[in-house]
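Late entry, written up from scratch paper. The run itself happened at the end of the previous shift, but nothing got recorded in the book at the time, so transcribing now.
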Amino acid sequence: MTVTLDTLRAGLKATLDHTDLGTLGTKYEGKVRDNYTTSDGRRIIVVTDRISAFDRVIGTLPYKGQVLNSLAAWWFEQTAHIVPNHVLDVPDPNVMIGVECEPLPVEMVVRAYITGVTSTSIWTHYEKGVRTFCGHELPDGLRKDQKLPEPILTPSTKAEHGEHDVSASRDEILAMGRLSARDFDEAAEHAMNLFKYGQSVCADRGLILVDTKYEFGRTPDGKIVIIDEIHTADSSRFWFSKSYRERFEQGESPESFDKEYVRRWLKAEGYSGDGEAPAIPDDVRVEASRRYIEACDTIRGEPFVPNTEAPGPRIRKNLGLDR
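Output as recorded:
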């Protein structure tokens, strides 16, 4: 990794935690992204440095937004031949501009291993004795972090701010009236194809793509496309393949560089999403950022170089707001 720890520590004082670019258009603030819908049919997405866990925003990490944006842009380009996406331009390290789409109200989550610590994770349910998860029958005797016989689709409803996502089967999603069967099946097919490709790319980099979530949207002309992000350390779980087997057999957690590191720290502090989250120490923030950057470097095969300019003024300049 070419980014030094000193650079990351210096970045702690200049994280992008919010934006106020109202002249761009109508603002919608997600957990990590600030979205601005313009009058000409574009969505300007500012990827902040906020980090979320257990469906809560819990702080910021230095350069996290730049890492996510650059990696998502790379994956969108790599997968355009598999599934169309919403991307029009990337004018700034923290900004992506896409076609304004109507988001589908369900996230498509694909899992290849039984793991996780959140309330929606497959392992949390399995450990409690549940053997049917999102319509999939699971055998007895599975251990945490074990590979499933084949990847499975476990859709999740999108929660409102302050609420938790809920995993559900295809039949349950359709019964809610959230999606038509045709749209669900098209998005599901896209998700499985993307995951298969992502597994292949990651395997070539010595990584295991453990699980991920995809968001889809409908363009003004009715096409379903992939939106938001793809195969980043926010949306996906990555393990190192070289050490997985030995650590699994010894009952140790796999080596990873996704935000599971932060989730585990929160869990150790007794936090699982309810009430006020504990403040994340700077050393944990720096280590988490280092892992995000390592993931980006490993997957893309090239070093991430952060832009250390003050993010607010730089974004305004690159979007032409100060002319």
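Residues 170 and 185 are 9 Å apart (CA to CA).
(Scratch paper discarded after transcription.)
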